[in-house]
């Protein structure tokens, strides 16, 4: 793989790209996206590597590497960046994100059409910063969608996009991926619990979520309980 990378790729970037491709394939293999939907990015210094537009993840290779500056200026590669580039860049500019994952996960997208906020049915809500908001609908790839996403992410590391999908960010690709998978799982959980006729799911209180947030701070990522 290394021999076929363009000579101008800086140290560390080739490895970051391989991790990005692996994460993108994982979103497909684990059912969070279908076809060429969804996109993944990772920040290396002030360069953002991002999946290219319209290339199936199983065909992504070293030649598809695309790197842009935080202002969107192309720094590396010749492929066309994902149409959701404005959304990814907005998240990097406004937060400490090192990686961003966007999917059209089916349960999360279903929930985005039903509520303005995912009801806190599970304590992992606290791991995402609190109840996950739904950003109002805006057409894909627009600055309006990027702005709505940032507002929904205030104090959170993930949000839903109405009639569209998920956005999650993290300190690295694994964390952004894990938050996406947790969000999809919680959406599935809420849909399942709330579909029982005549019953309403119990929700966690703000105090219960705050208690969990405190435990997460003390125990870090070990949220297994
Ligand atoms: Zn999308």
TrEMBL record:
Q: Which domain of life is it from?
A: Bacteria
Which parts of the sequence belong to the Class II aldolase/adducin N-terminal domain?
Answer: 18-191
Q: Write down a Pfam family by its short name.
A: Aldolase_II
- What UniProt keywords are attached to this protein's entry? Lyase, Metal-binding
InterPro entries membership: Aldolase_class_II_sugar_metab, Aldolase_II/adducin_N, Aldolase_II/adducin_N_sf
SUPFAM superfamilies reported in the protein's UniProt record: AraD/HMP-PK domain-like
Q: Which PANTHER family match?
A: 3-OXO-TETRONATE 4-PHOSPHATE DECARBOXYLASE-RELATED, FUCULOSE PHOSPHATE ALDOLASE
Give the protein name, as stated in the record: Class II aldolase/adducin family protein
- Organism expressing this protein natively: Streptomyces chilikensis
Mind giving the lineage of the organism this protein is from?
A: Bacteria, Bacillati, Actinomycetota, Actinomycetes, Kitasatosporales
